[in-house]
Design brief:
The protein is built from twelve helices and no strands. Helices cover about 70% and strands about 0% of the residues. The protein has helices at about 5-10, 20-25, 30-45, 50-55, 60-70, 80-90, 90-105, 110-115, 125-135, 140-150, 155-165, 175-185. It starts with a helix and ends in a 5-residue tail after the last helix. The radius of gyration is 20 Å and the shape is elongated. The longest helix has 15 residues, at about 155-165.
Amino acid sequence: LNTSTVSTLGEIGNKQATPALMKMTEVADSGTRMAVIDALGKIGDPISLPYLLTLFKNQNIQIRGQAARAIFHYTDPAVVEPCLTILDTGDVAMRVLAIETLGRIKDPRAIKPLIGQLNDPDERIQTATKNGLISFSESAINQIGVHYKEGTSPIKQKLIPVLRSIFNTTLGDTELEWSSFFDYIKAKGGYD
């Protein structure tokens, strides 16, 4: 199969092609190998996820990068750790994709690292992080509440727009209002 055919298989999303594509990465030339990894991600067959996670640890930086882009198509909790790794080591575009993926997965392990990304100087990271945290919605209130109460003033200020979106509220910008809000939620048994 050539690169064009492999790409078409990925676009079609035919899961029956997954086993053959996985075998192709072992013998294909570099360009076809990259197309195969991309196709496996687009197909999204759970069978290929362990294989892609193995490729994510490959010594070849191009294979690792392509595997990372492929795993961003999955919402399996197994993808959380690689995405968290990318938050610390990836370039901005890869980090944004990792943040978006974490927002779709909604795994509680991602909340604290995502909150840490609010300090990033790059506006694209901050925006993606806010959107990622908002996607957690009220399911994340326990952890966000704890991190808000323990956070520094700059983190608190960056969490306020996220909290407003989650709770669809008009609470203001003062930390006192939000601290009172979290005290109220805690009193009602909302976060620990």
